[in-house]
Amino acid sequence: MKLTIRPTGTAAAVARLQPGLVRRTFATQHGLGNNSATSKRKSVTPFNDDGYVPWHELSASEKASRATQQTFNFGLVIVGLALTGGVGYFLYQDVFSPDSKTAYFNRAVDRIKKDPECIALLGDSKKITAHGEETMNKWRRARPIASTLNTDAQGNQHLIMHFYVEGPLNNGVVNAHLTKPAGHHDFEYKYLCVNVRGHQRIYLENADAKPSSGENKKYKLFGVSWN
């Protein structure tokens, strides 16, 4: 005859509670592991944020720090674009634009090199060079061209500049005055001349010496000239 020994009520209750205790203990330990990992992570600031920590793991202050850093970086990009655009606009207006002083300087030099009187005084056109104001810089292309651009009371623009030319025979100074009447798109020469010491001034352009349109026109009627 076998005797069956049944566990008392207390022992049975402990046996039933053990799986639950194990699960709770494991969950508690796992939660402590996460908290320790979070506590080991450095606090995110605008100066050390590299974007590695996901957004949902950031605290409210850390989210504000990241937003501040991104706003600052965006501002730097905008400033950089503005500076680049300003430099590009300046280069276009001063160098590449058809109406820039550099463009008119190059055109004037080309005309001087093709003018027979200038070639006779300066020498071989291939050896004629031009440059701006004398400076300590020996590189001639770096010498600035003296020029002024202003607008008169009638709205006409005036571009005045002078520069220097050097040739195998002589050196000279070039003076140019260009005007753009109000409502027009192109400059016109008022004068363009070359001065070589000891020689008569050479005019390549002289609007004052040209009769204006409609001036001194005479009409004949019955053999009589009428102004």
Cα Rg: 43 Å
User: What's the SSE pattern?
Assistant: HHHHEEEEEEEE
Whole-number mean pLDDT: 77
Strand content: 15-25%
Number of strands: 8
Q: Biggest β-sheet: count, sense, barrel?
A: 6 strands, antiparallel
Q: Helical region count?
A: 4
Indicate the percent of residues in helices. 25-40%
Principal-axes geometry comes out as elongated
Secondary-structure content class = alpha+beta
The N- and C-terminal alpha carbons lie at a distance of 158 Å
State the low-pLDDT regions, or none: 25-34, 220-227
Structure, described:
- With 227 residues, this protein is of the alpha+beta class.
- Helices cover 40% and strands 21% of the residues.
- It has helices spanning 9-40, 60-96, 101-114, 116-122, and strands spanning 129-131, 146-151, 157-166, 171-180, 188-195, 202-206, 219-221, 224-226.
- Strands 1, 2, 3, 4, 5 and 6 form a six-stranded antiparallel sheet that branches. It has a two-stranded antiparallel ribbon with strand order 7-8.
- A hairpin with a 4-residue loop joins β3 and β4 (171-180).
- It is elongated, with a radius of gyration of 43 Å.
- The termini are far apart.
- Residues 25-34 and 220-227 have low confidence and may be disordered.
